[in-house]
């Protein structure tokens, strides 16, 4: 290990219009190192503009002020001035950003000072991926950088990034995993003109710890391949044969314990739901017959319960005993809720276990509603989450 880097930031809203932030960073490489601390006071002048006062001490001691204003619904401009406490030099900065589409944004930044430069960048953010790139040309250096991240699940992601220019040539590949609500760990493989590195990063809130591990200062193909393949293979082997089976076993054990604790409660709820369905049966049958005559909305299948149980039922074609206990048939109450116009709507934000004829067959588990229906001779299918809106019929549900 040749070095280490740390960064930390704390923000606080001190009043309705004022916020303050403190940040610090430190890095050590070999026998040299350095750090910096900064403070920023932000004041909201009006809904569309703000001003920030900043001060920094350490490697880059400076004081400055910058103001931002929203020019339009999709455009923002920022202008700032900073003075170095080390040599008294002045730096002016201007940046413009614009939202080009719902998922794409762009920005231009101009810096005038001892190291003047202009930079053009873009950012794209979607549900499963994010990407960004920048080209920067200055009086003393030029370069380009880009990164791409892909979310594999709610907890894990992969990342690839690269830099090229007059002072850098580097590519990084790696991934990260969320280990708690506020913490994430990431491991990266880096190869470039500085050598071959592993980087271990720990992020928690506004704090970041980076530990770079030098593998080789020379670009050797064998070492570079081994440094990438060995840890990647170990990770996937551990994930497939150790970590994933362990967590699956633990989740199954917790589910069984939860079922044992709530079995009496579920039996009572099922009995109450069955009685409610018996009361709804006659009216539901009349509505169903009327809709059949007119080619309207007829619910042919309705299941409510554990998301995992419904998914397992779809894959197996039928529900096993242990899965069936986490699902309740709700075809009768759904047919009862169809209105005279041949429509059915369950509002967003309402827990479906509270609907008459429904119950909670698996307390504590995430639940879904699986509905199959016919409309004008066509078959449809839709699955919605517990608090999600259901509105049928819709053409997008056609099988």
Structure description:
The chain has 399 residues and is of the alpha+beta class. It is built from four helices and 22 strands. The strands form three sheets. It has a 16-stranded antiparallel β-barrel. Strand 5 and strand 6 (75-84) form a beta hairpin. Helix 1 crosses helix 4. The protein is elongated and about 90 Å long. 14% of the residues are buried. The model has no long low-confidence stretch (mean pLDDT 90).
Compose a concise summary of this entry.
This protein has four helices and 22 strands. With 399 residues, the chain is α+β, with helices and mostly antiparallel strands.
Topology, element by element:
Elements: E1 3-13, E2 18-29, E3 32-46, E4 49-58, E5 62-70, E6 75-84, E7 90-99, E8 104-112, E9 117-125, E10 129-138, E11 142-151, E12 156-165, E13 169-178, E14 183-192, E15 195-204, E16 207-216, H1 221-294, E17 298-306, H2 307-316, H3 321-324, E18 327-329, H4 331-337, E19 344-346, E20 367-375, E21 378-385, E22 390-392
Antiparallel strand pairs: 1-2, 1-16, 2-3, 3-4, 4-5, 5-6, 6-7, 7-8, 8-9, 9-10, 10-11, 11-12, 12-13, 13-14, 14-15, 15-16, 17-18, 17-20, 19-22, 20-21
